[in-house]
Amino acid sequence: MIHGFDTELVHFDPAPGDPFHPSATPIYQTATFRQQSAGNSGNYDYTRSGNPTRHVFQNQIARLERGTSASAFSSGMAAINAVTSLVNSGDGIVAGDDLYGGTCRLLSRVLTRQGIDVRYIDTTDLDSVALEMKKRPGLVLIETPTNPFLKVTDISALASLVHENGGILAVDNTILSPYLQNPLEQGADVVIHSATKYLCGHSDVTAGAVVTVDERLGEKIAFYQNAAGTGLAPFEAWLLIRGMKTLGLRLERQQSTAARLARFLTEHHKVEKVYHPDLPNHPGRDLHFRQARGAGGVISFETESAEFSKKLIAATKLFAATVSFGGVASSISLPFYMSHANIPPAVRADRMIPKNLVRVSVGIENPDDLLEDLTQALETADNDKDDADAAETCTRS
Ligand SMILES: *Cc1c(COP(=O)(O)O)cnc(C)c1O
């Protein structure tokens, strides 16, 4: 029987094979498992290679992403690194031009040194993708919507182009989570998550996951997980299993508040530009809602200056100035100075992340409280500026 997504989030086997039928998944905090006999290791022998708690998380994320197999890693970056192991040296990677900063660092400063050619292109422009595909890259890696600009790429059109040229399409689905988008159903071969964000939802775990439909691809990723020793530890897997049960509830609240805040920001005279897929003037809006079930909880916007933005984030009380996103508590950041500061300067110059860009991750707080806090912070930043102007006028005269 097919159930709604919310039902699937809480109804799954929490402990396959456990004789006591616990309601919650046990933490199998063990490195080794006794062998049935020499030569017969049973289901598990060593936690690097496999652990029952990690398996419950892997089964659940595979199911939610509509894949057949999943591997869980110690971080989102470890998950992305596992996916790049699918590329042979001498092959190329084509990457979206608005990727997470840490992904750029891995691609530009680690993989290129291993002889892998990496090119960044605007994957929202399918004509330029088609040209790039003629060079037959092994792997195409994108995020949609991107972060921080929330640019939208057509997953199924891109998948066709990539497959015609014998490549693999990997979509980093961190920003929406499987609750809002399932790239494997649109033709992607691999879905990646930084489970640190929405899947966990409570800012208390770093974790990653890779999900595939093709079983052979899944086996290659699982092989890498064991070979490199980057599998997720049982306690972290347990926290994720627990956090994911409320994914739907959290995201419903987060995205409805985000839509409200995005509209408020659009109308605010101190805000120059707002990026959020739910806004009527968002260039990728129609495409986004064809492939996703919601706009998500992340908003970016530009104010009149970097100074103003810095004052704004200092003045907010409910939005904590932290990197990352997807937690139950709201956060605010300046990507140029924070999450995207580790993009190599050459790549960063191309991407032109404005210094005044502010990114907000909306939490599950009372929406009126968040609106009020943003209103007072914008006012405080503005008044602060008047003071600075006044001081300058005084010294001049
Ligand atoms: C945070 C993030 C990553 C990296 O994940 P970690 O868990 O921090 O290693 C990768 N991709 C996206 C889109 C992210 O937001």
Q: Which ligands occur here?
A: pyridoxal-5'-phosphate
The secondary structure category is: alpha/beta
Q: What portion of the residues fall into strands of 2 or more residues? A: 5-15%
Radius of gyration: 22 Å
The arrangement of helices and strands along the chain is: HHEHEHEHEHEEEHHHEHEHEEHEH
Q: What's the helical proportion of residues?
A: 25-40%
For the largest beta-sheet, the strand count, sense and barrel status come to: 7 strands, mixed
Terminal Cα span = 79 Å
Instruction: Supply the number of helical segments.
Output: 13
Uncertain runs are: 390-397
Tell me the number of strands: 12
Q: Overall 3D geometry?
A: globular
**Assembly level:** single chain
Strand order of the largest sheet: 1-7-6-5-4-2-3
Mean pLDDT across residues: 93
SSE layout:
Blueprint (H helix, E strand, L loop, with lengths): L4 H6 L41 H13 L4 E5 L2 H9 L7 E5 L4 H11 L5 E5 L4 H8 L5 E5 L11 H10 L3 E5 L17 E5 L13 E5 L2 H14 L5 H11 L2 H21 L3 E5 L9 H7 L6 E6 L2 H10 L4 E2 L9 E3 L11 H7 L5 E5 L5 H30 L1
Parallel strand pairs: 2-3, 2-4, 4-5, 5-6, 10-11
Antiparallel strand pairs: 1-7, 6-7, 8-9, 9-12, 11-12
Helix pairs in contact: 2-8, 3-4, 5-6, 11-13
Structure overview:
The protein is of the alpha/beta class and 397 residues long. The chain is 40% helix and 14% strand. It has 13 helices and 12 strands. The protein is globular and about 80 Å long. The N and C termini lie far apart (79 Å). The structure holds pyridoxal-5'-phosphate (PLP). Pyridoxal-5'-phosphate binds at residues 75-77, 100, 102-103, 143, 147, 172, 174-175, 194, 196-197, 206, 208.
